[in-house]
Amino acid sequence: MATMGRALTSLGARRKAARPIVECPWPAWKRRRRLYEVKCLHAHKPSEEPVLHVDEVDIHLNPKVGYDWCLPGQRRVVVTPGNNQKRFLAGALNVRTVGVIRFGGQVDYAAALSNSAGAA
Question: Residue 120: what pLDDT?
Answer without folding.
Answer: 47
